[in-house]
Amino acid sequence: MEIKLTAIGIIHTDHKTKEEAPIQGAFNPDTVGTVEIFSEFAEGLKDVELFSHIYLFYHFDRAEPGELVRHPFLDDTPHGIFATRHPCRPNGIGITVVRLTERSGNRLTVQGIDVLDGTPLLDIKPYVPRFDCHPEASDGWFAGKANRKKPSGRE
Amino acid sequence: MEIKLTAIGIIHTDHKTKEEAPIQGAFNPDTVGTVEIFSEFAEGLKDVELFSHIYLFYHFDRAEPGELVRHPFLDDTPHGIFATRHPCRPNGIGITVVRLTERSGNRLTVQGIDVLDGTPLLDIKPYVPRFDCHPEASDGWFAGKANRKKPSGRE
């Protein structure tokens, strides 16, 4: 079975290379980006500005599926790809929760964004705390891992 | 640009029809399901059991892209598709946060699942409260909307 997706827009950020892109937007809440939705999908944005936070779904267009067990950026122990947020996954779909600070027609200004400039946008969904916020969730291996630079030479 | 995805597994639930599937898993936290990961991807599950909550990414295989402004299940006012979680979206990708209660080889037992039986699984990511929990987020038009049955005749 094969599923085909098409971009509905483009994400513009100041992160021009993988090396300079932050590991997670939550570590860099002030990083601003612009989400441009292609005009043929712009009607679907009606009322999105009612939400303070949205999920961006995007394609990891500069990553390839890789090893199923690998080092994530924040740990020096390898983990299964499905226990990490690493971009090199069997299906290269990324999500990030961002703060929506402004909408101007088909352009959204967002804060706390970790994606590379020019990343193809696949979907936007409203972030709804009742469905999406689980403060009781465990941190798994992320527990105690502080933000750091991406280890040199590690894709 | 076209992006191709393939299923990495299948989600098994008791929800056999769209009518009986719950609107959101958060409304039905005790609903149990099983996530079966195909053997060629099973290695990627290493350490997933360290997490109490995971994101399931799946394909809305029984929904087609529809109108860009439409009625969601929980409201009688139409909204743009990107301001709803409705399955009939330009790219039919769904996510749900579920509680991971057991792992047995390539099978995960999860609670709080709202997807249809037989849904193709696309990805699993660990839910990390530091990145994913935003209690300060607004509810947008979901504010005050209680759980209800899917309105009759509304796809």
List the helices and strands and how they pair.
The structure is a homodimer of 155-residue chains.
Chain A: E1 2-6, E2 9-12, E3 32-37, E4 53-59, E5 69-70, E6 79-80, E7 93-104, E8 107-111, E9 119-126, H1 129-132
Q: What's the total number of strands of chain A?
A: 9
Helices and strands of chain A, in order, run as: EEEEEEEEEH
What is the fold-level CATH name, i.e. the topology of chain A?
A: Elongation Factor Tu (Ef-tu), domain 3
What's the overall average pLDDT of chain A, rounded?
90
Helix content of chain A: under 10%
Strand order of the largest sheet of chain A: 2-3-8-7-4-9
Q: In the CATH classification, which architecture of chain A applies? A: Beta Barrel
Low-confidence stretches of chain A: none
Structural class by sheet pairing and helices of chain A = mainly beta
Portion in beta strands of chain A: 25-35%
**Total DSSP helices of chain A:** 1
State the separation between the terminal residues of chain A, measured CA to CA.
Answer: 29 Å
Largest binding interface between chains: A-B, 66 and 66 residues
Overall tally of structural domains of chain A: 1
* Overall outline of chain A: globular
Query: Radius of gyration of chain A, Cα only, in angstroms?
Result: 16 Å
Please identify the oligomeric state: homodimer
